[in-house]
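In response to reviewer comment 3 from the previous cycle, which asked for concrete evidence that the modeling workflow produces usable outputs, we include below a single protein chain processed end to end. The sequence was submitted unchanged, and the resulting structure tokens are shown without manual editing.
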Amino acid sequence: MASHIVGYPRMGPKRELKFALESFWDGKSSADDLQKVSADLRSDIWKQMSAAGIKYIPSNTFSHYDQVLDTTAMLGAVPPRYGYTSGEIGLDVFFSMARGNASVPAMEMTKWFDTNYHYIVPELGPDVKFSYASHKAVNEYKEAKALGVDTVPVLVGPVSYLLLSKLAKGVDKSFDLLSLLPKILPVYKEVIAELKAAGASWIQFDEPLFVMDLEGHKLEAFSGAYAELESTLSGLNVLVETYFADIPAEAYKTLTSLKGVTAFGFDLVRGTKTIDLIKAGFPEGKYLFAGVVDGRNIWANDLAASLITLQSLEGVVGKDKLVVSTSCSLLHTAVDLINETKLDDEIKSWLAFAAQKVVEVDALAKALAGQTNESFFTANADALSSRRSSPRVTNESVQKAAAALKGSDHRRTTEVSARLDAQQKKLNLPILPTTTIGSFPQTVELRRVRREYKAKKISEEDYVKAIKEEIKKVVDIQEELDIDVLVHGEPERNDMVEYFGEQLSGFAFTANGWVQSYGSRCVKPPVIYGDVSRPKPMTVFWSSTAQSMTKRPMKGMLTGPVTILNWSFVRNDQPRHETCYQIALAIKDEVEDLEKGGIGVIQIDEAALREGLPLRKAEHSFYLDWAVHSFRITNCGVQDSTQIHTHMCYSNFNDIIHSIIDMDADVITIENSRSDEKLLSVFREGVKYGAGIGPGVYDIHSPRIPSTEEIADRINKMLAVLEQNILWVNPDCGLKTRKYTEVKPALKAVVDAAKLIRSQLSSAK
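The workflow returned the following structure tokens.
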């Protein structure tokens, strides 16, 4: 019985790629150095899967940024501002598209479906000249073959690529991106022909858009595209892979009727209803790649249950046509449990990272072929039983408190307009108040202090002294720049979710459980294994300390319950919304303690609220109801004069704007500049927003420093659709990934632009 892995993490077990990328970007190493690290990582991945017995091993899933940007490079679809004309796209152009450079901004970045992974959004229109400009897919196939590993090259499918794109600036809104299919398919044909010539026998097209609610003409585009590719694909086995949700019935019919396609891959973890479609009818003679091992979470597979599922499918498609697979790429999980030293043995036995999931896939394939590893299956069953019965998982008082939330919407009793009046009397802010989102640059010295404190190499007294000095530096910088509402810079936090999870019960933490978010940015999601509560205050000391250093308002900085949930590996033994309500109650306790501690402005970040939105529209309402309710629970008990902020970034928020309004925050700061001010269009279309709002005025994920004039222009665009008395001026997101040499001049431009517009507004009266 055959086995398959959809994709694999690329950062390396100890973030080797992250450090190689950052060294290259900082000019400390060469392109050759970066390519060597990358080649070594790819080699290790391929050899590991081959040694584990995996038959269908992916290639071209390794990327220096993301797979969609790789496809943009393959198609030569480089926006004109980057100066590319022809030839093989080099790292300079590639990284300029991803990160911007000194003279031009980066392309838009957004979330990859409902994950915390990001991709660079292609900018397309009728004038784009497509050409075969990156041979990465073919080169990596040849590279693996030279190591003795025959791989399945993976390409982002042509239809999904176009549907994940956006119209380039200036392109008429009526232009249909799918009309570009005849222009990009010739490039795909060139790639396919080269892969065939290199000896490839299989090719995988990732077409995740199949799981979305698609109109008929979009489904027809899939049929037309693969009919056009059919002759070029002749002689190859072709797998079309879908993931992240159930596939709708009409999409299933279209997918399983595609010409030239040999095999179909489905996520049977998040898409259990797809099993019914398969049993009702699967095309004879085709392969089913059954994604029964979860690529999005870190819990050990229930091998016995998965084997029953596989055996039922075997009766439908035939023994020789069933392939055991992961539900999606393992990119979304941590790399290898073998590197974990922080987890105790009990919790560790409940988990499976990418390397362990590869073993699970192989074990299931062998068991299906009658070669069951009895000791492996027995150990798995024992671990599952241990988790179900462990007293660490359940806290009866927490469950009762969460259950008692039903029956109330937990809305603040006073309307937002009256609250804003009470807050203005207390805060006395100017028009167009300036602020930042929370974090300030995380310097090498600061990281050293935190690392040495965790390793017990410095005392708590020395640690507190160092963090206080860092806070004072950040406060002084903001006062010198004349920012109106300050932040303490979060020097005590390596990661916004990890920091809170470490102080909440029901969470466990890894030493090396890193997951790529975008580019070189990695996060280490906490593991929520049990009921959640807050044993003691988490941020009050640092926020109060920072407030004592200034007479200006100091924001208390918290991560909201929905974001903590969506940026964690969440327990799968109870509904997600029940876990979220538990987290909300813990954050509510913290909010009320901050208020008692003299903090008058409290920001509860919900950066990931949109990210968790289900992919199917029929499921949106239920998710948004409990997600918005969870946020309101956190701050329903504060006084009118306490100003509640929230922050969101790097997603498409326009389609959930009414739910954002329903959150009933006093002020929302939201990413705007990197997405070409797409957010503003919702207000141009007549949506009324009465609370404070700060659409971001510069992209903090690019090293580029904006000018005062550029930011002033953005503010004026905002004033065309928003009232001046509700508008805030702020960056897109936190500043932790930037350097002080970038942050200081950028924030000076922000403040100078706000003052310039204030002056103009005052003169116009």
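The mean pLDDT is 95. We consider this sufficient to address the reviewer's concern, and the full set will be provided in the supplementary archive.
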